[in-house]
Amino acid sequence: MERDPQDLGDDHHEERFQLCEVELAQLQLTQKEPEEGEVLLSQRRLLSAFAMEEFEFPASIHLQKMTLFPKWHLPLKLMAVLMAVAFVYTFLRDVLHPYVSKGKNDFYKIPILVLNKVLPWTSITLLALVYLPGILAALLQLHRGTKYSRFPVWLENWMSVRKQLGLLAFLLACLHAIYSLSYPMRRSYRYKLLNWAYQQVQHKKESAWVEDDVWRMEIYISLGILGLGIMALLAISSLPSVSDMLNWREFQCVQRTLGYTALFLCTAHALVYGWKKWVELKQYVWYTPPSFILACFLPAMVLLVKAMLVMPCLDKRLDRIRHGWERPGRKGHSDKDSL
């Protein structure tokens, strides 16, 4: 006999948790050491009740004993360190230097302008760190002449968090795009726009068109949009529901081919943004290079080494090694190569 839907109002939430408690108790009675799959199934049933506060969970659930995103600890710490370094560097150049040398108060730049330089710098660095361990692994295999020797522990740990690094890079890139779109909404930008218009009238200029700046902005914005779009595809393909539908070849094509394409476009986006600034002496504040030069250094090195590895002389040798070929005299030395 079916129950009247009106009777499910106040008691529905309580009954769901009672059912979860009964299922968990039955699981504990039937097996003293339940298998991992059954425990995960029971946890999913508990989570289906949409409990948010600790007092809503059954008494047998101890949240403090459960792990909390163990794969995200290292990527988040690395992102925090990179953002802190980029923020201090940008603050010294764009805010503190004008205040010390000219007495100009540019502290209003911190919330938007300074942060919008920190975000892309950190994002492109994290994206480069996604593909750097694969290059290091390829160089190790070429050096050792075999694929049967284990990689160093630090390299294995690094490779295991590449997905998290890529997702964080995509998040920061999205924030960078949003911050950039907010530029015309700032009050300071409107004041500067009025000042530019007044100065144009004072100098009796009919047009403020600068061909060089127009081309620079058109190109680097287009490259940034393309890079962000490809990063979105990479983020979507990393979802379990999507990656499970791809075979190994398809997944490798998306993550490697499109990944390096995104890294190239983002690096080109930063270089075109700098345009001729890297040769202008006034950009080297306190003898420090512009931030876009430092941001492009690691991605450019990754792309350069990758371009060397795809050369036929190295690519064919690496392909033979990954198919089981070993350099003569390497047998029996696999364990000694592991660190």
- How is the biggest beta sheet arranged? none
**Strand and helix order:** HHHHHHHHHHHHH
Q: Note the quaternary state here.
A: single chain
Which percent band covers the strand fraction? under 5%
User: What is the helical fraction, as a range of percent?
Assistant: 55-70%
Shape: globular
Give the tally of β-strands. 0
Which residue ranges are poorly predicted, with pLDDT under 50 across at least 5 consecutive positions?
1-34
Mean pLDDT: 83
Alpha-carbon Rg, integer = 27 Å
Distance between the termini: 67 Å
Notes on the protein architecture:
This protein has 339 residues and is mainly α. 69% of the residues lie in helices and 0% in strands. The chain contains 13 helices and no strands. The protein has helices at 11-30, 36-47, 73-102, 110-144, 153-160, 162-181, 187-202, 211-237, 240-243, 248-274, 291-309, 312-322, 334-337. The longest helix is centred in the middle third of the chain and has 35 residues, at 110-144. The N and C termini lie far apart (67 Å). Mean pLDDT is 83; it is low at 1-34.
